[in-house]
Amino acid sequence: MSIYEGGSGDLNNIMFQGTASNVGKSIISAGICRVLWQDGYRVGPFKSQNMSLNSYIDKYGGEMGRAQVFQAEACNLLPRAYMNPILLKPSGNHKSQLIMKGKFIKNISSSDYQDLKPDLVSWLDQVYQRYQRDFDIVVLEGAGSPVEININKLDISNMEMARIADSPVVLVADIDRGGVFASIVGTLSLMSDEERSRVKGVIINKFRGRKDYFSEGVRLLEDIIKIPVLGVVPYQKLGIDEEDGVSEKTYKEAKQVYRKDKLNVVVLKLDHMSNYTDFNVFEHIEGLELSYISPDQDLEASDGQNGKVGPDILIIPGSKNTLGDMERLNKSPMRDQILAYSKRGGLIVGLCGGYQMLGQTIRDDRGLDGSRGKVDGLGLLEVDTVFGSDKITGQVRWNFGHEEGYFFGLENSQIEGYETHLGRTYPGPDDNYKIKDGHIMGTYCHGLFDSAGFLSGLLNNIAKARGLARTFEVKDYRAIKNEEYNKLADLIRENVDMEKVYNIIFSRDI
User: Fold this and answer.
1) Are the beta carbons of 403 and 438 closer than 8 angstroms?
2) C-alpha span between 273 and 324 (Å, rounded)
3) Rg of the chain on CA atoms, in Å
4) Residue 53 pLDDT more than 90?
5) Of these residues, 33, 352, 421, 439, which one is catalytic?
6) Strands (E) located in 111-252
7) What is the pLDDT, as a whole number, of residue 308?
8) pTM of the model as a whole
9) How confident is the model at residue 257 (pLDDT cuts 50, 70, 90)?
10) Does the annotation count 284 as an active-site position?
């Protein structure tokens, strides 16, 4: 324990809400979590409701949003689905998968979910009161903005959850998008007196430039809102999972030139792409270039001379509307480009929905995954997928078998990951994956590339085939993330007044 008092069951908590989506409240929450854990507290993250395409499966098969996964890791805890008791996964046509305490309940329309919300308040109260007893401090996170006035009475993500938890609130604002003063003042002005009384501080995030030039702005803001600015946090690129939607890095233009001195990894940017955290590990590997391309772009790029070449590996990711994404791919120039790339022996890996797309057909008679009907896949694997109402979730661990081609010599590499999907693929893989001709692989295993031994061997096989004089030894991704959490904690300590944060947690004041 630090010098601050507090103990298990003392109802000590703090909640971070944002002036808008994507202001960085998930990362700020994770940084506070790591600081509190470093200071000796048992800390638990909590987000009542999350809407995200990017989910994770805990060790008991429960599905949860990724933000509470990296926050749990920052607290040195195993992620558990009850840290994010309500998860909505959009699947198109104004419908979402409703997941409660990790279990798939049903597909639900947005209007039906709004009708359900009043009944969820008492349920969330029970979930939270049981949850908080295990921790010295709970760090709660809101969603979007707390002042969406058209739906505020039904917003169980922000101030209603703060009321349930009886939690003080810190407002996080993003200066990088501009208008930070107006966003803070406007947000506070739209709150009721009771809601505003909970707000004990403000953190300004993603600052670029010299902070001494900004001090007068902080002083003027505090004079207006009568609430302290707890910190101005500089923009810093960290290798920590992002949460909602599709990460901003996927909006970069496709590569115009593939580097001859590096391995070029390309991810197909699907409209309903999910679990893009599968590819974060590639950003930490020297000698590798990662890019994302849409079906309307070209798979081939300049070789830096007078010709064009394909990537060293093409990855087809997961999708929350596999039929819809497959239909678009079938109508795009990319389909023929992928088939030509495969015919030349190009390396293709399909993950989850991407695995289904590598097969012969995909069938969803009830529209469980977004679109209804049957579509042709790429036809590169001899499998067919049929969607049913049962959702398959769980963590997986297996040893890679003996294979040829790009996968030669990887036998006994241990793979750890998780699966989450509605469709069943026939005939199913005997060893969690299917490989054809040593260069086409499909698997339901998210986290495949986080397995350092497997990825090192695969990259070295690619480099050898390319004649590239480079050896890859991938560092364990968990160790990489742990270093990043410590960097984040350092960033928080240097730029946020933690004494005031502790006073807010334990004294409900500054």
Assistant:
1) yes
2) 11
3) 24
4) no
5) 352
6) 137-141, 169-174, 199-207, 229-234
7) 86
8) 0.86
9) confident
10) no
